[in-house]
Design a protein that fits this description.
Keywords: Cell membrane, Glycoprotein, Membrane, Peptide transport, Protein transport, Transmembrane, Transmembrane helix, Transport. With about 725 residues, the chain is α+β, with helices and mostly antiparallel strands. The chain contains 19 helices and 22 strands. The strands form six sheets. Strands 5, 8, 9, 12 and 13 form a five-stranded mixed beta sheet that branches. It is elongated.
């Protein structure tokens, strides 16, 4: 390893041939991945439901954050290799990382500033600013340590421990998936809890606080193992050297672009005046692969929407799996579960079967197939969205209003509302909302009432008996689905006296006769409402089984008796039907996307490793991570630039773009020639085993190149 030979390297304690130090590294990675994926699992819902951002803006900020997480590894690699070394880089950036997670947890405490009656913080600017600072620090921390931890783990092994090193990387990868899987199960459960001092709201502070605690644990565990680590000193960054070589070739080619200079076989050959041919050959190999990377960001543009668009899609679906209730952000666990299942199946069964059929399934062909599977996943998501859209209520547009009528009289009632004619039984409502373009007259036979509705609203018109003639009461209804799969419940009191209604520790409020309570959000499952007389001389419990995303008006009739039989009297009026498309319908799109990931991502890493020079594999790794960052940038550009009214159309747009990119990539792959970097490096090593004359002093070269008018004359002066 760099900085040590076999005799110089310190001997660390071992168990079964493995350094004890790797235990601290594996535990550190598990905690760090739990912290990152746990926070990320609930992030887009935090944006939408806590910060009150719309879907597009929440998606944009989410993907901006993910893009930053995949841009900062380049910075981390340069700092570690050129300045601090891997150990100090991990320590310092982990402190930054933990600070960011703690700040995120603090930003999600809704009681930290004054809140309005709905529990929404009044000083939202404070929460937004704190969140952005936290996310910036997290992006710097998680991205900065990403290229260091695995390599630092590899540094713990002696040169003769190749087998143990390979096993370590398998365990390391397992710890990543274990942390990801557990966190995406646990943090949505924490988010769904209710917490707060003054108001009870979804507990995003706890959902961010636990990952913050795990990141602090990760840092402490890593520091505890400090005395056992093999720490290599920074030896200079090959990435910087690579960039300087490329930059110099471009600069030199531009400087000598006049026609009387002889042409060179490759534009990188213009770096020969300063760099040896072996390095230039290595750079050429890397550039050849990086050129193939150009279309790849489109795959990641689709892949990373599992945490944004697909999670938002799940909020409009039914998560009842019988014994289990799945939260929308928990559906992301399908991906790591399928990865653990599919990777061994693909490697041990699918690829060997393809080989037996004597099909030349090259790495680039595999990657093309992986991209097609990702496109199919978004087609599947679009089909699911079409089914969801068909079940959603038709909410009023800006110029139309809607109304429903409830008859609280003790007799049947025939009425005319504008052009509609209805007959309502006692204590009943009409089946669906009626649409009105303007104000209308409600004709109740013996009396007429002019009704004025605000454009774009849903309303309930309650008909009551006040004196000799019927009167009307008007209430505003929800004009969108309840958020996060919750159920919105309110009570209409026809009992004749004031009532107090509670559910658990939630107070639905007091409601006088012929009035309604405010909507209260209730989670899926069986809800138990306690109804008390304001005088305290009677109470009863009403239970209702609720699904996801419904809204009900519960009518308390005049005949209610405050005893154990009261539940039979209460009448349910469904304002918004519960979500009927099951979350299980998302499994096919996750399955297709995961197959695409296994075939594309794993193969891409293998291909990059096989085609990279021995000393530039980190450069290609940085390039690979950069494609992930660019993919997320593509998402935020499309989310802001393309305004499609239908979500299914956006899914099909992304699928179509990936198919087009896939065709371009397949053409590029067709003309790609596979190489053996070891053989090429050996050829140049034989030709120039000790050629150090090319490593010239920058200032001397610049001086002579500027004063020379002919390339051959310049070469002679340097010799």
């Amino acid at each position: 390893m760099a900085g040590y030979n076999e005799k110089q390297r310190p001997k660390s304690a071992t168990v079964c041939g493995y350094p004890i130090s790797i235990f601290f590294i594996v535990v550190n990675e598990f905690c760090e991945r739990f912290s990152y994926y746990g926070m990320r699992a609930v992030l887009v819902l935090y944006f939408k439901y806590f910060l009150n951002w719309d879907d597009d803006f929440a998606t944009t900020i989410y993907h901006t954050f993910v893009a930053l997480c995949y841009l900062t590894p380049i910075l981390g690699a340069i700092v570690a290799d050129s300045w601090l070394g891997k150990f100090k880089t991990i320590i310092y950036l982990s402190i930054v990382y933990a600070a960011g997670q703690v700040i995120m947890a603090i930003s999600a405490i809704h009681d930290i500033t004054d809140a309005n009656k709905d529990g929404v913080p009044d000083n939202m600017t404070f929460h937004v600013a704190l969140s952005m600072v936290g996310l910036l620090l997290i992006a710097l921390g998680t991205g900065g340590i990403k290229p260091c931890v695995a390599a630092f783990g590899g540094d713990q092994f002696q040169d003769h421990q190749e087998k143990q090193r390979g096993t370590f990387f398998s365990i390391f990868y397992l710890s990543i998936n274990a942390g990801s899987l557990l966190s995406t199960v646990i943090t949505p459960i924490l988010r769904a809890q209710e917490c707060g001092i003054h108001t009870k709201q979804k507990c995003y502070s706890l959902a961010f606080g636990v990952p913050a605690a795990l990141m602090v644990v990760a840092l402490i565990v890593f520091i505890i193992g400090s005395g056992m680590y093999n720490k290599t000193a920074p030896q200079g960054n090959i990435m910087v050297k690579f960039c300087r070589c490329v930059g110099y070739a471009i600069k030199n080619r531009f400087k000598h672009r006049s026609s009387h200079f002889p042409k060179r076989a490759h534009w990188m050959d213009w770096a020969e005046e300063k760099y040896d041919k072996l390095l230039i050959a290595q750079v050429k190999m890397v550039l050849k692969v990086l050129f193939l990377y150009i279309p790849l960001p489109m795959f990641w543009a689709l892949f990373d929407q599992q945490g944004s668009r697909w999670t938002l899609q799940a909020t409009t679906m039914n998560g009842d799996f019988g014994a289990l209730t799945i939260y929308p952000d928990q559906m992301q666990t399908v991906n790591p579960i399928l990865i653990l299942i599919l990777v061994p199946i693909v490697d041990s069964v699918i690829y060997p079967l393809i080989a037996k059929c004597k099909l030349n399934f090259t790495p680039l062909k595999r990657m093309t197939v992986g991209m097609l599977f990702a496109a199919l996943a978004f087609v599947a998501a679009g089909l699911v969205q079409l089914q969801i859209d068909q079940t959603l209520p038709k909410f009023p547009s800006g110029s139309v209003s809607q109304a429903k009528f409830i008859n609280m009289l003790n007799r049947s009632l025939s009425l005319r509302a504008g052009t509609y004619e209805l007959t309502l039984d006692p204590l009943k409502a009409n089946d669906k909302y009626l649409s009105f373009d303007d104000s209308f007259v409600l004709d109740l036979g013996m009396v007429q009432h002019p009704i004025s509705l605000q454009d774009g609203t849903r309303n309930t018109i309650v008909i009551i008996q006040e004196g000799p003639l019927p009167e009307t009461l008007q209430f505003k209804d929800l004009k969108s689905k309840p958020e996060q799969g919750a159920n919105s419940i309110r009570f209409l009191n026809g009992f004749g006296s004031e009532l107090n209604i509670t559910i658990g520790n939630k107070d639905c409020g007091s409601v006088v006769s012929n009035n309604m309570t405010e909507y209260v959000d209730v989670s899926q499952g069986t809800a138990h409402f306690l109804i008390k007389n304001a005088t305290g001389d009677g109470e009863c419990t009403y239970s209702q089984t609720l699904g996801f995303g419904s809204s009900y008006t519960l009518i308390i009739p005049p005949t209610l008796t405050l005893d154990e039989n009261c539940a039979k009297s209460i009448i349910e009026v469904m304002d918004i039907a519960p979500n009927s498309v099951h979350m299980a319908w998302q499994i096919p799109q996750y399955f297709l996307m995961t197959i695409g990931e296994v075939v594309f991502s794993v193969t891409g890493l293998e291909f990059s490793y096989s085609q990279a020079p021995s000393n530039m594999k980190a450069v290609l790794q940085a390039g690979w991570l950069l494609t992930v960052a660019v993919g997320n940038i593509i998402v935020l550009i499309i989310a802001e630039a393309v305004t499609l009214d239908e979500q299914w159309a956006e899914y099909i747009l992304f699928a179509s773009l990936l198919v087009v990119v896939c065709i371009v990539f397949s053409i590029m792959a067709y003309f790609y020639t596979y190489i053996d970097p070891v053989k090429i490096e050996a050829q140049f090593a034989e030709k120039e085993p000790t050629d150090k004359k090319k490593m010239r002093d920058d200032d001397y070269y610049e001086h002579n190149s500027d004063s020379s008018s002919d390339e051959d004359e310049f070469k002679q002066s340097k010799l």
